[in-house]
Amino acid sequence: MKRLVYFAVIIPLLLTSCHSKSAQEKVAFTQSTESKADKDSSQLKPADTKTILARKEVPVLCYHQIRNNLASDSKRAHDDIIAPDKFKEHIKMLADSGYHTILPDELCNYLVYGAKLPTKPIMITFDDTDLDQFTTGASTLKKYGFKGVYFIMTVSIGKKGRIGYMSAEQIKQLSDDGNTIASHTYDHKNFAQFIDEDWTTQIDEPTKKLEKITGKKVEYFAFPYGVYKASTLHKLKEHGFKGAFILSTKRDDEYPLYTIRRIIDPGRYTAKNLYYSINKSFNKLKQ
């Protein structure tokens, strides 16, 4: 009798366990299928240049040095310098205004495939490898759950002087924290003045160095001074880049992914000025 009771209890439990396992496997299969569907959706036919140019632009901000002005700074340099307190105020304004940062892969998927973006997307970028972009820039972004894009000039890595620069270890940490590490040439040579060997020294070698530091592919580029040469834009794709960033000049009609616009947030701006500038620069109606 006891044996019958034992089987009466155990068999339903085993059946329940088997059913539970089957359900778990079904959930796992469904999740796998959904993941595959998401992956397949990225294989849609890419948009043509006219469609890409017609999409609403995403605001992209550019920063250089985050420090207080020095008496020795030229008037021109002031546009590339923003005081730490003002930078923090501006980033807080973006967070309080409901902006969400995105990274280049998200932007390209939106431009090429029409992928969805968060509400009020914005991209925050830094040029030239300055140490204050790590000590002040990255820590401020992190406070608000923001991510950034760091365009690295590889000649400067680990250098010290009047202006300190990030070390390889700090660049790796930025990458590990989910930020994007991208290329800004070897020593800031003007892209419009490239000669044949510069595609090795200014593009390929810096890319390899950054990939060795981060362990990740480097697929984005920012033009020094924001200057590009239309006739050689196609070579950026040939050298492995998915996209490239200029400053506030007009995008190229044939290569819009390689002339993505940015605006500088100058040190003289208030947070209100910046908000106005973002809307004026990136919310224009298409002609």
Automatic annotation (TrEMBL):
<dbReference type="Pfam" id="PF01522">
    <property type="entry name" value="Polysacc_deac_1"/>
</dbReference>
<dbReference type="InterPro" id="IPR002509">
    <property type="entry name" value="NODB_dom"/>
</dbReference>
<dbReference type="InterPro" id="IPR051398">
    <property type="entry name" value="Polysacch_Deacetylase"/>
</dbReference>
<keyword id="KW-0732">Signal</keyword>
<feature type="signal peptide">
    <location>
        <begin position="1"/>
        <end position="23"/>
    </location>
</feature>
<protein>
    <submittedName>
        <fullName>Polysaccharide deacetylase family protein</fullName>
    </submittedName>
</protein>
<feature type="domain" description="NodB homology">
    <location>
        <begin position="120"/>
        <end position="287"/>
    </location>
</feature>
<dbReference type="InterPro" id="IPR011330">
    <property type="entry name" value="Glyco_hydro/deAcase_b/a-brl"/>
</dbReference>
